[in-house]
Recover the amino acids of this structure.
C-alpha cells in the first residue's frame, strides 16, 4: 500500500509541475489575447511614415507640441497585435475559452497538489476539486465544443468513484 501511495505522490508531483508551467503560459496567452482584443477595437489616428525604406501607416498615440509618438507597428482597425491571433484567436469567445481553461488548470493543479502531499484520492478535498474541475470543463465545452463535455463526464464519474472509495475506506477504518 505504501509503495502505491509513493507512486501516486511522485507522479502527481511531476504532473503538478507541468500544470504550473501550462498555467503560467496560459495566463501570458490570456493577457496577450485581452490586450489584442482591446487594441483591435481602438480606432487610432494614423499617419503614413517611411521607416527603413518601407512606407506604412503607423498609429499616433499622442502629440506633444511638434513631437509625435507612434506605435512601432503598422496599424488598422482589427489589427493583430504582435501576431497574437496566430497564438489564439483575439475574439471574446477565444478570451472566454482561455479564462475557463485557466480556471480548469487551476482546479487540476489543486487536485495534483493534494495528491502529491497525501497520495490518497479518497479525500473530500480531492473530490471537491475534481467536481470544480468538471464544472470548469462544462464551461469550456460551452465555448469550444463536444470534447470538454465528454471530459467533464469522465471527471464526474471519477468523482463518484473516489467518493465511493472514500466511503469504503471510512468503513474499513472504523471496523479496524
Amino acid at each position: 500500500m505504501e509503495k502505491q501511495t509513493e507512486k501516486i505522490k511522485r507522479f502527481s508531483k511531476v504532473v503538478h509541475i507541468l500544470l504550473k508551467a501550462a498555467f503560467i503560459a496560459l495566463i501570458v496567452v490570456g493577457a496577450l489575447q485581452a490586450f489584442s482584443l482591446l487594441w483591435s477595437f481602438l480606432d487610432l489616428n494614423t499617419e503614413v511614415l517611411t521607416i527603413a525604406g518601407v512606407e506604412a501607416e503607423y498609429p499616433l498615440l499622442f502629440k506633444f507640441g511638434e513631437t509625435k509618438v507612434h506605435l512601432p507597428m503598422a496599424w488598422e482597425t482589427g489589427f493583430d497585435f504582435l501576431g497574437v491571433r496566430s497564438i489564439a484567436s483575439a475574439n471574446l469567445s477565444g478570451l472566454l475559452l482561455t479564462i475557463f481553461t485557466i480556471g480548469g488548470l487551476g482546479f487540476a493543479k489543486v487536485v495534483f497538489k493534494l495528491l502529491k502531499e497525501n497520495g490518497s484520492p479518497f479525500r473530500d478535498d480531492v473530490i471537491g476539486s475534481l467536481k470544480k474541475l468538471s464544472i470548469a470543463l462544462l464551461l469550456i465545452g460551452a465555448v469550444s465544443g463536444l470534447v470538454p463535455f465528454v471530459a467533464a463526464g469522465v471527471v464526474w464519474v471519477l468523482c463518484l468513484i473516489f467518493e465511493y472509495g472514500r466511503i469504503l475506506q471510512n468503513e474499513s477504518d472504523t471496523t479496524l
